[in-house]
Write a structure and sequence with these properties.
alpha+beta; Double-stranded beta-helix; 4-stranded antiparallel beta sheet; 10 helices; globular; binds fe (ii) ion
Length: 403
């Protein structure tokens, strides 16, 4: 490097561990173009689009970012749009980019963060965990029920990570060997994190003998597959049931991979898929002193246009008014979704018995219940999606550091 500025003291401005995870791709070289940073990967791919304003706003040195909380220290609003071209160097070993601004300031960027922004590396730190989803349905059946052992989940972080990764991959998992006690259920839930309190409380009992809520869940009747909390702006991310008692006939828990159903619709009827992405469906829940209401499309997409959340509960759907044409399209698409969700070939039925705890991703899997006679008592809770993702990221990062 041929400038007369002092080299940044890396010992004082090392990037936080968070920004230096393992990454299969590396940056080979960096070039300062007049309007922004250009990087060349080891395989020759050239990535650009990082304006100098953006670069200055995304420093990860201690002056630009709090290394404990990763909160931004840079005063974005004090930066001028037309940042003059700096000089840049690459620390190949640590994959860090040093930036020397003409005004004498210095900043540091993480090659990994640039790669993940350009989707050349795992985006686990932005939204989704690094493992993929495995969709299942009648054409893609699961060979085995995803299960984990209770005692291992409670005592080993590697088993806890395995549990959470299975929930993410398959949308559900069964924990075996769970004691049928409120304390054991609460302790298991705490392994993931703080539970989500709703009008049903934080930990709740589910049985037809309970009369405090009028919801269809508190009956013995057949429940069509649905997602919970369509009337909450922050519908539960996870739902967990520990089977305390079962003495009767029927009552199997039903799981449906709604992402797989959406995938089927996207292929077979793209217009119906679009209708389900675009039509806002309201949900409501009413009981004395309670009137909840929220609305979102059946298929909510993320900023990459990937499916992020399915919401479907026709029991709780609130009145909605559309034009005749919209109603016609919606009725077709919603009916198609309902038909596929109720095709038992797309289901997994799980006869839960004491010792078994079912947990599922309520943004992905629909759940239902076969009608039953006899006694069936569950004890369970919800977790917010952010809590689940947080624990998964923390455990994955810790696991990656041990490799
Ligand atoms: Fe439910």
């Amino acid at each position: 490097m041929s400038n007369n500025l002092a080299t940044p003291q890396l010992s004082e401005s090392l990037a936080p561990d968070f920004y230096t995870p393992l990454c299969s791709k590396t940056i080979q070289s960096v070039n300062a173009q007049p309007d922004g940073l250009e990087i060349t990967l080891g395989d020759g791919t050239v990535l650009d689009g990082f304006s100098w304003f953006w670069v200055r706003d995304h420093g990860i040195d201690a002056k630009s970012m709090d290394h404990t909380t990763l909160q931004r220290n840079t005063d974005t609003f004090a930066l001028e749009q037309g940042q003059a071209k700096p000089e840049v160097t690459l620390d190949s070993d640590d994959q860090l980019i040093e930036v020397f601004w003409p005004d004498g300031d210095k900043s540091l960027l993480s090659a990994y963060s640039l790669l993940s922004i350009k989707q050349e590396a795992s985006s686990q730190h932005h939204l989704a965990p690094k493992i993929g989803r495995i969709l299942w349905d009648k054409d893609r059946p699961l060979e085995n029920l995803p299960t984990v052992d209770h005692s291992r989940v409670m005592s080993e972080d590697s088993a806890l990570l395995d549990w959470l990764e299975k929930i993410h991959s398959y949308g559900f998992c069964v924990v075996e060997g769970v004691p049928s006690t409120e304390q054991a259920t609460a302790d298991l839930a705490k392994r993931i994190g703080i539970v989500q309190e709703t009008i049903f409380g934080d930990m709740w009992k589910l049985s037809a003998e309970l009369t405090e809520h009028g919801d269809t869940a508190y009956t013995t009747q057949y429940l069509e597959p649905h997602t919970d909390g369509t009337y909450y702006h922050d519908a539960a991310g996870l739902q967990m049931f520990n089977c305390f008692e079962f003495d009767g006939k029927g009552g199997e828990s039903v799981q449906v991979d709604a992402f797989a159903i959406a995938d089927q619709i996207k292929t077979a009827d793209p217009e119906a898929y679009q209708t389900l992405c675009q039509t806002i469906v309201p949900g409501h829940y009413i009981e004395p002193q309670v009137h909840l209401r929220a609305e979102r499309p059946t298929f909510r997409l993320d900023s990459n246009e990937d499916l992020a959340q399915v919401s479907f509960n026709n029991y709780d759907r609130a009145p909605m008014m559309m034009t005749d044409n919209q109603t016609k399209k919606f009725h077709h698409a919603y009916g198609l979704f309902h038909e596929l969700a109720n095709n038992q070939d797309n289901w997994i039925k799980i006869p839960l018995r004491p010792g078994m705890t079912l947990i599922f991703d309520n943004w992905r899997n629909m759940h239902g219940r076969m009608g039953y006679v006899g006694k069936r008592v569950f004890y369970g809770c919800y977790h917010n999606m952010a809590v689940f993702e947080s624990k998964l990221r923390v455990l994955q990062s810790a696991s990656a550091r041990l490799l």
